[in-house]
Amino acid sequence: MRLALGPRGLRARIVLGFAAVTLLVSVVLVSTTFLAARSYLLDQRESSLTRQAFADANVLNSRLATAGADVGDLLAELVPSGGADVVLRSGGSWYSSSLDVGARDVPEELRGIVTDGSAGTARIDTAHGPALMVGVPLRAAGVEYYEVAPLVELRQVLATLSAVLAAAALAATAAGAGFGVWAGRRAVQPLEQVAGAATRIAGGELTTRLPPTDDPDLVAIVGGFNSMVDALAARIERDARFVGDVSHELRSPLTTLVTSVEVLGARRDELSPRAQQALALVETELGRFRRTLDDLLQLARLDDAAALDEARPLPLAALVRELLAATGRPADLLTADPDERTTVRGDKTSLERAVRNLLDNADRHAGGPVHVGVQRRDGSVVVTVDDAGPGVALEDRERVFERFARGPRAARRSLPGAGLGLAIVAETAARHGGAAWCADAPGGGARFSLSVPAVDA
Asked: Which of 2, 149, 265, 427 has the fewest beta carbons under 10 Å from its own?
């Protein structure tokens, strides 16, 4: 079974990179230091033990020069420096100062060197640990002298040194990781500022800019980002002004057309059947044109950053209740929490328009709403409108809130509307800090929801 690890963030990769590099450098330095120290200490210890062995061998050699001296007796009287043990070979006999070492511990290679008349050293393992054996030929006495000095203390020193160096490597790695945390925070901080500014801009705060910086590596980024936001804000303002200007300019001729059509409609009976049909078609299209123009004006107002300056606390439950009564819908459609629990801060006209659009959308596409709810959920007040229609396909549930977006069923059936009603709902929710979405209704059909942050009454 393979364990899948998620992708690491930039900050985590920086920390891991610093820690890995520090650990690698520490391992190299620790290994080099340990090997150098080990070589130096071994060389010093071997030199010291070799000098000691030669001194002890000279003492024994001088005693062996005495006529009638016995090798075994002299070995018993010999006291080597540093607690070393001595092994002697005289003729074909072996002598030892300790039961722990003897002829069996003398390496063949070292024995051959001493037999040939040269001094030599060899590292051996004894029952008490590693040791250094120094062999010295005593030619005048015909004796081979071997002195065995323990290296246990040196091994303990090296073990202590390795533990200290390992602890230093771990401490250096921890310090490297700590520096990586600091460096990662400094490296990611500009990205977090950009992300925060982009989030606020996406939420409608077009006055957001990155603060100026003296960092030469960030000056171009900050300047480019702020210039992009300036251009975006100018474009949005220009588009909103264009839509508003066009809508206002069209209102006067539209009013004239509506008035003229109403005059014709008052004398409908005097017209021929074909003319009456043409008049009905003109009335229908003028009504659609007027609704589209009103929607465009509403969107232009929503695009205005100061649209919520006059927002006041209001209970959404009461607003929906009044709207149902004003549109002639039955009151039992509504299921709502108490008014004080559904209080939000917002613009009554735009919220009323958004809820009306949800109701009109149910009328237009599903024969009318079958249930309207206003509940408080997790710090927000949610208005839901359920219908018994065919519902909205999963892939179209986000697109229906786009401007001029119409579902495939509406297009095939030539239903009235320009596809701006739900866009106004989404824009209104966003301007109030909320959201709008579509889902399946519990009883079948579609459920359109509008949420606005709640405030205490």
From this structure: 2
State both tokens at 43.
Answer: 């060389």
* Beta carbons within 8 Å of 61's beta carbon, 6+ residues apart: 138, 140, 141, 143, 145
Whole-number Å distance between alpha carbons of 173 and 159: 21
> How many Cα atoms are found within 13 Å in the side-chain-facing hemisphere of 21?
10
What 3-state class would DSSP assign to 119?
coil
* pLDDT value for 3: 44
Q: Looking at this protein, which amino acid is placed at residue 262?
A: E
Specify the pLDDT at position 432: 86
Q: Where are the alpha helices (DSSP H) in 267-395?
A: 273-303, 316-326, 348-366
Nearby residues of 364 by Cβ (< 8 Å), 6 or more positions away: 410, 415, 416, 417
pLDDT at residue number 334: 92
Which residue, 420, 415, 421, 428, is CA-closest to 403? 420
List, as own/partner pairs, every contact residues 236-241 make where C-beta atoms lie below 8 angstroms and the sequence separation is at least 24, other chains included.
Answer: 236/206, 236/303, 239/303, 240/300, 240/303, 240/304
Please tell me whether the overall predicted TM-score, pTM, comes out greater than 0.85 for this model: no
In order of start, what are the domains of the chain with their CATH numbers? 10-158 (3.30.450), 216-301 (1.10.287.130), 311-453 (3.30.565.10)
Q: Which residues of the chain have pLDDT under 50?
A: 1-6, 305-307, 411-414
